[in-house]
Fold:
Amino acid sequence: MASERSREHSVNEWSELSPAKRQLLERRFLGQLAGNPRSAKVPRRTGSGPFPLSFGQQRLWFLDQIEPSSPLYSVGWAAELRGPLNLDALRLAFNTIVKRHESLRTTYSHFDGSPVQVIAEDRLVEWSLFNLETADPVSQTSDVNVILKKEAQRPFDLSRDLMLRATLIRLGPEQAILLIVIHHIASDGWSMGVLLEELRAGYAAF
Structure:
């Protein structure tokens, strides 16, 4: 209970800081990492782990410890899909992407007092499925906005969640909306483009 109260107090203090003070705290933390020989370079992985965090992962992990329920570091992408949809092929395409990219199936734990990467051999993408086909147009639009906002802001648990999740909202027999959300610790704008290209290729193949 004492550690939970302490963590809650830290989160409240963080939320009360001005943007300038938050930036100063981040810089101080990054300066400490830069001065730590163990953090200067991450060696090539050998063996089965656990593995140290990269510099960027350390920064995002640190911020998550301070404010664990923040959606600020989630990267979202949504698109309207038209035409017949093969959900099994879409699931296979997503799961193949996860199998190809270790960063998506990496979680973050503690080992000897330091944060480490724990890479799972294989994991399946978590799906949220919604069917709004019978809703009237006005209600459908409202419900879609609520669902997209809720799913995009749902926080990741870095210690156990897959760093990628998908939401599919069916609007009609040949109309749907697909939302992809990835934590920034596993992806950035450039790698999101790679993921979308692999998704298109995988879906077409399956």
